[in-house]
Amino acid sequence: MLSNSKSLYRTTLNALEKSKILLIVFAEGFIGLEYNSETSFE
């Protein structure tokens, strides 16, 4: 039982790490689009 929850915990951590990376990549891309649209208007 304990080892099962340990592996579940590890799987959750791995998923969080991957989603965090995706979120950062998405945020950087979105910020880049915002920045580009702002500079192109001037």
Indicate the topology.
Layout: H1 2-41
Q: Strand-and-helix sequence, N→C?
A: H
Structural class: mainly alpha
How many β strands by DSSP?
A: 0
Largest sheet: none
Mean pLDDT: 87
Number of helices: 1
How many whole angstroms does the radius of gyration measure? 18 Å
Q: State the distance separating the first and last CA atoms.
A: 62 Å
State which percent range the strand residues make up.
Answer: under 5%
Low-pLDDT windows of residues: none
Tally of discrete structural domains: 1
Question: Tell me, what's the shape?
Answer: rod-shaped
Helix content: over 70%
What would your notes on this structure say?
This protein has 42 residues and is mainly alpha-helical. It has one domain. Helices cover 95% and strands 0% of the residues. The protein is built from one helix and no strands. The longest helix has 40 residues. The mean pLDDT is 87.
In short:
This protein is mostly helical and 42 residues long. Helices cover 95% and strands 0% of the residues.
Keywords for this entry:
42 residues; mainly alpha; 1 helix; 0% strand; rod-shaped
